[in-house]
Amino acid sequence: MAELERKIIPIGPFHPLQEEAEYFKLTVEGEKVVGLDIQLGYMHRGHEKICEGKTYDQIPFVVERICGICSTSHPFACVQAIEDAAGIEIPPRAAYIRTIVGELERLHSHLLWVGLAGHFLGYNTVWMWAWKYREPVLEMLELITGNRNHYAMFKPGGVRRDIEGGMIPPLLQVLDAADKKIMMLTKAILDDPVLHRRLEGVGVLTKEKAVEYSVVGPTARASGLATDVRKDDPHAAYDWIEWEEIVLHEGDVFAKAKVRLLECFESTKIIRQCLGKLKDLPAGEIDARMEYPPDGKGIGRYEAPRGEVFHYVKGDGSLYPVRYKIRAPSFMNIKSNEVAVLGASVADAAITLAAVDPCYCCTERIAAFNTKGKLLYTWDDLVKLSQEKTARMGGGS
Amino acid sequence: MNMSVGWVFFYLLVFPGFLFTSVVGLLYTWIDRKVTARVQFRVGPPLLQPFYDFFKLLGKDTFVPEGAPRSIFLGAPLVGLASVSVLSTVLLVSNMFPQQAFAGDLIVVLYLFVFVPIILIIGASASSNPISALGASREMTLYLAYELPLLFALATIIVKSGGLLKIGDLLQWQWANHPFLYSASGAIAFVSAFLCMQAKLGFVPFDIAEAEQEIMGGTILEYSGPALAVLKLTKAMLYFTASIFLTVFFWGGFRSPRQGWYHILGWLKPVAIIVLIILIKNTNPRLRIDQALRFFWSIVLVLSIVGFILAAVGL
């Protein structure tokens, strides 16, 4: 066969595939992708720096705005980091409420992804139906927290609002209805022969590569890598209740979709159990007092819908942290596309890129400015700058 | 056949040619959008929305990409528009006056149908955009995939009717006997022709050449303003024409010798066909181009050959 001419097919910076600005430079021979260059850095917002100028009470609100979809995962990890640094134990009722909000968020996020995946395949009916069935979940969140998104529910030491006894029966009702709808949607998607043919064996990420790229969340669990912070490092109420970790071994886009859909049922299971436990606990005990601002380091991990989110905080006893560090799950997952996409056709590349459920602005910690081709800092310069700052902060470890 | 030049122009430009087809075609796109919206729990646009969209595009600028041959890039949509106008005129006039058909009009219809993919390929290739080129190559593959089953489907009904080659004769045969759809071979031919039309119209699961989420519109990526409006209009007219094509060749035409209510029901046949098209469109994901090729060359082609053999033995 004659050598095919190599061409560049850009996905991004602005592309109908995804709403955010990202740039995947696909090198193609005909339809086949032979190279992928991932360029991010269009949406740096400086969250870590902003956090250094906020008090510990304010930080959860700032990190909540990192992501509009996992807007409770970042505060979840954040308050755990602060509590870790300050050495606070939260009351059990707060732990249950945190778990409920976290799982409701996972439900809505997974349904949102299923809808988007349908849209990326030109299957707009799945998109609209999934988002319609996501609506009751958002209504539950509104009932509990007062907001459909950006719940403002968490604070260091506990939660801001209680779930009162009278709210539980209607919540369970909505949950049952949502369960049925999600079951219908799951069956429709998992039994669709065309979707099987379209997604099976596409964008395979083997277990070895999953380990190599340290992917997290559903991306890892679809590749046979049993990693879930909720099981590995139990926090909140996750080790007080019964639930299964969904692990599949195929590693293709279909497995990723299946993991997410099946996790929805685990989430409803968790929420049901938590709501049941709430009845036995004294109402109103939802926060522990933070007596002094933390003097030291703390970390918080939480299994966001997209994978592990990690927050690190370092305090010096003042009202403000001296360093705040965030790692979003997409930071680990996006890079794995390098191997998942190679050899696929452009059509498969599009859905594979979306299958890790990427969240670009959450993950960006660096910005590149147009300096007319002049490089301001090399990678080594940046590492050096970072080390200098650590030394300035007093003792790197 | 004695048609004055004036009448020919009237048929071509006003009724049932350009003007009529474009208005009905745009109304078809409204039906499309409305049914799609209802399937997806949405409200859908008002009746005149496709017209607003069309006239709005007319008022926008047209950009010709750098390095693109202007005449070919902008000429392609116009050729497409003209060919679809003639196509619908031939189909509709031979349905209204079956005895006036000219020899070989079936061949003319087939040729004119080919024009639409061809102008899309030419326009996209002229735009000098690699993504459009990808769309053009997909459109070409798709065309090669569905053309052979479509020819076999038409051969089936020709054999079935005993070798009639004029559209008018085929219609009169159906009126005298029964629509081809109501026989085993005709039904099979209808199914394969229907799938080919879905691909020709570029609808899901065969919207591979445009695939918004992959190649951002592919063949029509570089078009804007009036040129895009003309392309969209061409597609809308093709929508109408494809449903007429299926009705005329397989379902006894929309106009039958019987009068009264039956006559009105006849006009609903193409609408029923497009509702079916819309439902298929909304219950499937997009196929990959190699899957589409395999689908047409294995399943649909075999299906239409079976239909052809059935027709040859008289079923």
Structure overview:
The complex is a heterodimer of chains A (397) and B (315). Chain A has 397 residues and is of the alpha+beta class. Chain A has a single domain, classed as Cytochrome-c3 Hydrogenase, chain B. Chain A has 16 helices and eight strands. In chain A, β4 and β5 form a beta hairpin. The longest helix of chain A is centred in the N-terminal third of the chain and has 29 residues. Chain B has one domain. Helices cover 71% and strands 0% of the residues of chain B. In chain B, α4 packs antiparallel against α5 and α4 runs parallel beside α10. The chains are: A alpha+beta (397), B mainly alpha (315). Chains A and B meet through β1, α4, α5, α7 and α14 of A and α6, α9 and α12 of B.
Task: Describe the structure in brief.
The complex is a heterodimer of chains A (397) and B (315). Chain A has 397 residues and is α+β, with helices and mostly antiparallel strands. Chain A has helices at 47-52, 59-64, 73-86, 92-120, 124-145, 168-190, 193-199, 207-212, 217-221, 229-232, 253-278, 330-333, 337-340, 346-355, 360-363, 379-392, and strands spanning 6-11, 23-29, 32-39, 154-155, 158-159, 295-304, 307-316, 321-327.
List the helices and strands and how they pair.
The complex is a heterodimer of chains A (397) and B (315).
Chain A: E1 6-11, E2 23-29, E3 32-39, H1 47-52, H2 59-64, H3 73-86, H4 92-120, H5 124-145, E4 154-155, E5 158-159, H6 168-190, H7 193-199, H8 207-212, H9 217-221, H10 229-232, H11 253-278, E6 295-304, E7 307-316, E8 321-327, H12 330-333, H13 337-340, H14 346-355, H15 360-363, H16 379-392
Antiparallel strand pairs in A: 1-2, 2-3, 4-5, 6-7, 7-8
Chain B: H1 5-13, H2 18-39, H3 49-58, H4 70-96, H5 105-126, H6 130-160, H7 167-176, H8 184-200, H9 212-215, H10 225-250, H11 261-282, H12 289-312
